[in-house]
């Protein structure tokens, strides 16, 4: 039986395959302001963050904007509309073996929480498109709307622990496809932190944050967590 009792997984790029559409949308709304920001830099400075913060940080680090707050607000409003439209049209899928992986974890008394820098509207839309239900495929969803401080602050992790009355952070695993996921897990002192290569960032980027494991896909955790 695994010492881990609570597995907290990022959504896009970790458990859900949406081909980086969120960051391509961030790139588009920023470049619509007259910039030429690369997707690589959007992923470098924005991956995993609450999306207004992501837009702000990309503007700060990748443009010569002298009015970041105003431009970030404009871009974020455009982003919400554009992403809503994209997700309405886009085919969303999960990575191979995800549901059997979830089932195996839950059979071994490990709670599954999805946490995300998305707001509740977008996150709920993604779950609906996959027909994932809380209490069936997963145990809890926590979004950027549920906390006052998003990643890399550990608030979403603490909220999940509180929900399941887990007080020992050594029993918590945090996994995601971006540096900020791993930093979030380390800021919470999680027992295990995991980076995955199925989403936003590269092995070199993830290695910089020193996770306990770097995996190709999250389902490889089954061999680590379950005897």
UniProtKB/TrEMBL annotation:
The record ties this protein, via InterPro entries, to: HAD-like_hydrolase_sf, HAD-like_sf, HAD_2, HAD_sf, PGP-like_dom2, PhnX-like
* Gene3D superfamilies (alphabetical): HAD superfamily/HAD-like, Putative phosphatase, domain 2
- Sections of the chain in a coiled coil: none
Q: NCBIfam families in the record, alphabetically?
A: PhnX-like
According to UniProt, the name of this protein is Phosphatase
Question: Taxonomically, what lineage is the organism?
Answer: Bacteria, Pseudomonadati, Bacteroidota, Cytophagia, Cytophagales
């Amino acid at each position: 039986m695994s010492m881990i009792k609570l597995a907290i997984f990022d959504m896009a790029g970790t458990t859900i395959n949406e081909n980086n559409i969120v960051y391509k949308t961030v790139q588009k709304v920023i470049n619509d302001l007259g910039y030429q920001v690369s997707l690589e830099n959007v992923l470098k400075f924005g991956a995993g963050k609450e999306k207004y913060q992501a837009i702000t940080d990309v503007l700060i680090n990748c443009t010569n904007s002298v009015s970041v707050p105003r431009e970030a607000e404009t871009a974020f409003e455009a982003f919400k509309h554009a992403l809503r439209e994209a997700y309405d049209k886009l085919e969303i899928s999960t990575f191979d073996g995800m549901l059997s992986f979830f089932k195996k974890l839950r059979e071994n008394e490990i709670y599954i929480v999805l946490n995300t820098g998305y707001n509740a509207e977008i996150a709920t839309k993604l779950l609906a498109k996959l027909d994932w239900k809380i209490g069936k495929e997963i145990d809890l969803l926590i979004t950027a709307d549920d906390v006052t401080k998003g990643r890399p602050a550990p608030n979403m992790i603490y909220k999940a622990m509180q929900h399941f009355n887990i007080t020992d952070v050594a029993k918590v695993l945090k996994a995601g496809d971006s540096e900020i996921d791993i930093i979030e897990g380390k800021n919470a002192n999680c027992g295990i932190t995991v980076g995955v290569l199925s989403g936003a960032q590269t092995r070199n980027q993830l290695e910089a944050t020193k996770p306990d494991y770097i995996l190709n896909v999250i389902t490889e955790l089954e061999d680590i967590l379950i005897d």
